[in-house]
Design brief:
alpha/beta, 3-stranded parallel sheet, two-stranded parallel sheet, 7 strands, globular
């Protein structure tokens, strides 16, 4: 494919690590197709490395330079790194949380990925959390590790794991609009 060069599904559709769920199924069933059920990984991959889609519906083929965005009419703008190749590593089933974050990080390192981008994280991460330690070790191996800071709302100075790993880039989002408070 022009953008996605490979990947792996480490868990399968039915995987769900939540023991309180009626669909609890903690046994991974890996397969070679990393497509996710709810398109969250696809969406974040497009934000990171998408080519862009012109208002005509055609894929943008470049060039990517300082005038790219202003010089075109877009349905979907290009990602931050449109020249990057992608490898998808699926660690979530169609429902529930995962216990496979470390395996995903290890797969990325073993397969010589330059960047690991994880739009995931647990609340209240600590540097000694096992997923944070895996992120730290990946960073020590020369991999750029980017992870969500937890997405836990407006809680200053709180981050999640694996973003709490040493050497990880912890990325957060916040809605500072006072008309839409995060909590009542």
């Amino acid at each position: 494919a022009p953008k996605v060069k490979g990947g792996i599904d480490l868990v399968g559709d039915s995987y769900n690590a939540d023991p309180t769920s009626s669909t609890y199924q903690p046994t991974p069933h890996p397969d070679p197709n990393p497509l996710d059920c709810n398109s969250h990984g696809t969406h974040t991959a497009g934000t990171m490395a998408g080519f862009g889609v012109l208002s005509t519906g055609q894929r943008y083929t470049g060039p990517y330079n300082a005038s790219t965005v202003a010089s075109n009419s877009w349905n979907v703008g290009p990602g931050v790194a449109p020249g990057a190749d992608l490898y998808a590593i699926r660690i979530f089933g169609c429902e529930g949380p995962t216990d496979e974050t470390i395996d995903g990080i290890e797969w990325a390192v073993a397969n010589h990925m330059d960047v690991i981008n994880m739009s995931l994280g647990s609340p209240f991460g600590a540097a000694d959390d096992p997923a944070a330690e895996a992120a730290t070790n990946a960073a020590k191996d020369g991999v750029i590790v980017v992870a969500s800071s937890g997405n836990e709302g407006h809680n200053p100075y709180m981050t999640g794991s694996p973003a709490s790993g040493t050497g990880a880039i912890s990325v957060a989002a916040i809605d500072p609009t006072q008309q839409f408070p995060g909590a009542s």
